[in-house]
Amino acid sequence: MIEIQDNPNVLDTVQIQQILPHRYPMLLVDRVLDCKAGEYAIGRKNVSINEDFFQGHFPGNPVMPGALILEALAQTGAIALLSLPEFKGKTAYFGGVRKAKFRQMVRPGDVLRLEVELDKLRSNVGLGKAKAYVEDQLACSADLTFAIQ
């Protein structure tokens, strides 16, 4: 896990919306706990039974879809990228996923800790290692690619 630094780079939902173009129901990061532009971001997603996707995934056994966990991680990485001055006002698109592994189910009431460390940044493409935790348990890990336009 990435350690949270004593850092003023905590962002609330309003500040996140100034960086990301996503809005409800697709904004999947509730808070940024720490961020160093171009290097890493640590976010939080409060998983609520009120999420639209729980109506159909799966009734009586609600589980957050893995694709949405990956999307939450991608949004967290995009915050780290788009916090760089040269990318202000741009959009970071999900360019690819490799080595995705899901280790435990994410259910209503869980709090996802979203960690993305950026490995490489070339021109308008970024690569990062992403991990999502529920408490101290790794729920998902993946290598992500971002395309910035």
TrEMBL record:
Pfam families: FabA. Involved in unsaturated fatty acids biosynthesis. Catalyzes the dehydration of short chain beta-hydroxyacyl-ACPs and long chain saturated and unsaturated beta-hydroxyacyl-ACPs. SUPFAM superfamilies: Thioesterase/thiol ester dehydrase-isomerase (SSF54637). GO terms for molecular function: (3R)-hydroxyacyl-[acyl-carrier-protein] dehydratase activity. It comes from Bombilactobacillus thymidiniphilus. It is found in: Cytoplasm. The lineage of its organism: Bacteria, Bacillati, Bacillota, Bacilli, Lactobacillales. Belongs to the thioester dehydratase family. FabZ subfamily. InterPro entries: FabA_FabZ (IPR013114), FabZ (IPR010084), HotDog_dom_sf (IPR029069). It catalyses: a (3R)-hydroxyacyl-[ACP] = a (2E)-enoyl-[ACP] + H2O. This is 3-hydroxyacyl-[acyl-carrier-protein] dehydratase FabZ. CDD domains: FabZ. Keywords: Cytoplasm, Lipid A biosynthesis, Lipid biosynthesis, Lipid metabolism, Lyase. It comes from the Bacteria. It is an enzyme of class 4 (lyase). PANTHER family: 3-HYDROXYACYL-[ACYL-CARRIER-PROTEIN] DEHYDRATASE. Its EC number is 4.2.1.59. HAMAP family: FabZ. The active site is at H57.
